[in-house]
Write a structure and sequence with these properties.
Blueprint lengths: L1 H12 L1 H38 L5 E4 L7 H4 L8 E7 L6 E6 L6 E8 L16 E4 L1 H7 L6 E5 L10 E9 L9 E5 H11 L24 E6 L5 H12 L3 E3 L1 H43 L1 H9 L4 H38 L14 H27 L3 H8 L1
Parallel strand pairs: 4-8, 5-7
Antiparallel strand pairs: 1-9, 1-10, 2-9, 3-4, 3-6, 5-8, 6-7
Length: 398
C-alpha cells in the first residue's frame, strides 16, 4: 500500500521525532513494568509460602461437639471445601508409638486423614492399616517408608492396652505437620475412641463393658481445608453458622497478606492511570504537532489521488511503529532491571521464586493496552489529517 510505504519512509527520515516519542514511552513504561513485576514476584512468593503450609488452609472446630453423619453430609458438597474429615474427641487422639519390636515409645498426636488430605503426598490413599508420620517422629524412632509401627493406647489401669499394628506409607516433609504426629484413616481413630469408651474389640483381644454393635457413631467436630486462601474466611464463618460451634483458623494472617495484595494493586493501578494520562497527553501533542508540521507534505500526497481515509492512516501507521519499538525496548530494559534487582535483593525470597514476575497473559494485556493508548492518541492526528484541504494548505503555504 502506498500510504504504508510513505508513512514508513517519512518516519525513518524524521527519526528524531520517533526517538522522542519512543523515549517518552520507555521512560514511563519501564518503571511501571518493574513495579508491577516486583509486586507480582513478592506477592506470589508470599502466597506460595502460605500455600506451602497446608495449615494456612485448615479450619478446626473447637471443643467437643456431638455431630452425626447427617449433620456433616451437606458440608461434603460445598465447593469451597477441598478436604473434610470428622474428628474424635480430643482426649482420645494421643497414642504411644513405637517401631515394631522396639522398646522406645514416643507419645504422638493421631490425626484423622484420608484421600485428598493436603498434608499427604499427591495421589496417596491410606489403607486401613497405613499411616503417614511427621518428620520429627520418623527421626526420633528411625523410621523409614514401609516400616512397621505399633500404636499403643495410654489407658492406665486397663487390664489390656489396645495395640494397633500399622505400616508407614509416607514420611511427611519437615515443613509438613509439626511435632510428633501420625496421620491415619478416620476408622482407625474411631476404633481408638471405641476402646476408650469401653466397647469390646474381640479382634484385638479387648473385652469391654459394651458390645461394639451397640455403638452409635458420633463426631466431635471436623477438620476442613479450604480450596484456596480467598475462600478461607468465608468458609470459616459458614461452618460456624452451620454447625453452631467455634473454629480455629489462620484467617487473620491470610487476610493480612490478601489485603496487602489488594492495596498494592490499588496503588499500582492509580499510578498506571496517572502515567497513562501523562503519556497519552504527550503523544497526542506529539502526533498532532507532527501532522500540523507536515500539512504541505500530506496535501501533496492527497493531490496524487490518495483518499482522505487512507491519508488518515498516515499518523496511525507511524503510531503503531512507535508503540512497537517502545514496547520492545521497554520489556528488554525491564528484563535487564529485573536481573539486577534479583541479584541485589532476591536472596531472601524462597527458592525458585523470582523477584520480578510478569505472566505472558499479563504481558499481552499490557501490550494491547499500550497499543490502544497510542492509537487513541494518534486518532486525533488522524482526524486532523482526514479534514485537511490540499488546495487551502498549498495556497496558504505559497
Amino acid at each position: 500500500m502506498l500510504i504504508l510505504s510513505l508513512a514508513w519512509r517519512d518516519l525513518m527520515r524524521d527519526r528524531f521525532l520517533l526517538f522522542c516519542n519512543v523515549a517518552a514511552m520507555v521512560g514511563i513504561l519501564v518503571p511501571l513494568l518493574v513495579l508491577f513485576g516486583v509486586k507480582n514476584g513478592v506477592y506470589t512468593a508470599l502466597i506460595g509460602e502460605l500455600l506451602s503450609d497446608p495449615a494456612n488452609l485448615q479450619i478446626d472446630t473447637q471443643g467437643n461437639g456431638s455431630f452425626s453423619e447427617a449433620d456433616l453430609a451437606p458440608l461434603r458438597d460445598w465447593p469451597e471445601i477441598a478436604f473434610l474429615t470428622p474428628k474424635v474427641r480430643g482426649q482420645f487422639d494421643y497414642m504411644n508409638v513405637r517401631a515394631k519390636g522396639g522398646r522406645r515409645f514416643r507419645p504422638a498426636l493421631v490425626l484423622p486423614s484420608g484421600a485428598g488430605d493436603p498434608n499427604l503426598p499427591p495421589g496417596l490413599r491410606l489403607g486401613q492399616d497405613q499411616v503417614a508420620v511427621s518428620a520429627q517422629l520418623a527421626r526420633q524412632l528411625n523410621l523409614t517408608q514401609q516400616a512397621e509401627l505399633e500404636l499403643v493406647s495410654q489407658a492406665e489401669g486397663r487390664p489390656r492396652q489396645l495395640v494397633l499394628p500399622v505400616k508407614v506409607a509416607a514420611i511427611l516433609p519437615e515443613s509438613g505437620v509439626p511435632g510428633r504426629a501420625v496421620l491415619a484413616p478416620f476408622p482407625l481413630l474411631d476404633l481408638i475412641e471405641a476402646f476408650y469408651d469401653s466397647y469390646s474389640l474381640p479382634e484385638y483381644g479387648i473385652v469391654g463393658t459394651r458390645a461394639l454393635a451397640e455403638r452409635v457413631t458420633s463426631y466431635e467436630g471436623v477438620r476442613v481445608y479450604a480450596r484456596n486462601l480467598e475462600e478461607l474466611a468465608g468458609l470459616q464463618a459458614r461452618i460456624e453458622t452451620r454447625l453452631g460451634i467455634g473454629t480455629n483458623a489462620r484467617t487473620r494472617e491470610v487476610e493480612a497478606v490478601l489485603g496487602l495484595g489488594h492495596k498494592l494493586n490499588l496503588a499500582l493501578g492509580l499510578t498506571a492511570v496517572l502515567a497513562a494520562l501523562g503519556l497519552g497527553a504527550a503523544l497526542v501533542l506529539g502526533f498532532w504537532s507532527d501532522v500540523s508540521r507536515k500539512k504541505p507534505v500530506l496535501a501533496g500526497i492527497a493531490l496524487l489521488g490518495v483518499p482522505s481515509r487512507q491519508l488518515a492512516l498516515f499518523p496511525v501507521i507511524q503510531a503503531v511503529v512507535t508503540s512497537g519499538l517502545g514496547l520492545a525496548i521497554s520489556f528488554a530494559l525491564y528484563l535487564a532491571a529485573g536481573r539486577v534487582a534479583a541479584a541485589l535483593f532476591g536472596q531472601n525470597l524462597p527458592a525458585g521464586r523470582d523477584l520480578t514476575l510478569i505472566a505472558p497473559a499479563q504481558g499481552l494485556l499490557i501490550c494491547v493496552s499500550v497499543l490502544a493508548l497510542v492509537l487513541g492518541a494518534a486518532g486525533f492526528a488522524a482526524w486532523s489529517a482526514q479534514r485537511l484541504d490540499p488546495a487551502s494548505v498549498l495556497r496558504d503555504g505559497g
